[in-house]
Structures are given as C-alpha cells and as structure tokens.
Amino acid sequence: KPFKPYVPADKITPEITAVSVILGIILSVVFGAANAYLGLKVGLTVSASIPAAVISMGVIRVIMRRNSILESNIVQTIGSAGESLAAGAIFTLPALFIWAEEGKHGIENPSILEITLIALIGGLLGVFFMIPLRNALIVKEHGTLPYPEGTACAEVLLAGENGGSKASTVFIGMGFAAL
Description:
Layout: H1 18-42, H2 49-63, H3 69-102, H4 112-139, H5 148-162, H6 164-178
Helix pairs in contact: 1-3, 2-3, 2-5, 3-4, 3-5, 5-6
C-alpha cells in the first residue's frame, strides 16, 4: 500500500503548541534522567517511546480533553528523544574520562561545557540525519520495513484518538503494570 498520512495535509490541527512542547520537555527530562541512572548503574537502558506515547495520550486526550493526535505525537517524540540522548551520552562520554585517566594524547577530563556541547551536537546530528532519511525510510518503504516500536507507539496514539474501549485497555494495562 502507498503511504497515506493519518491526518490529511489539508486538515488544520494543533501540533506544536506550548502544552505539547512543555509536556514533552518534562517527559524528556524524567525519562532521560531515569535512563542515565539505569544505564550507568546496570549498563543497559530501556526505551521510553511507548511509555511517553501512553502518558502523552493520557494527558492530552484524557486530562486536558484535547482531541489532537498531532500534539500527542509531538509530546511522545520529544519525550523519547531525551532518553535516546541520555543513552548516547552515558555510553560515549565515559570513554573521554577513561582516556583522560590513562593520560593518552594529553587529554584532560572534559569540562561541563564540553560534555554539553558533545550531547547537543550529537542530538542535532541525529535530527539532521533523520530529516532526509524520513522520506526514504518512512514514506517510500512504508509497509516494507518493520518498525515494531514505532508501530506500537502509533497504535497507542490511535487508540487514544479513537477513545472508548481501546483507550481504556491501554490505561488498564498501564495501571496493572504500575501495580
């Protein structure tokens, strides 16, 4: 099947709003901190995409009573970006400290400014490389390449958009998992 967006291009729907950006940043910080702690403590991280999708759907759709899947998508995307950036930082930055400790090539411990710049440049490179790849990987290969986590996030957001029993199933599952 050819790629067909869920929301038609001619439909005017709120997308990048103050609420979606602020909520996304909050989720990004929380999931980023949790992933950084988990990764440094036990050496592995977890993906926050699906939990971010569930929380964004719950807050945007249920609590705020807004009917915008695009706002929920922005929240989910920003929220999951924080955990990805944290994972990239915790697995690459320790190498700089190890090199400095071993005294190789006159490297000193990186400053907080250098760490911030490395994380910022790494995040921007990820975004800049994904922009041209979106058309090739998402649009042209739609239906060919499996994206299980992306598909699961989309289904969570669609369940929230449809409401009713589908959305309640997501929240029952979330409550059961919390218990």
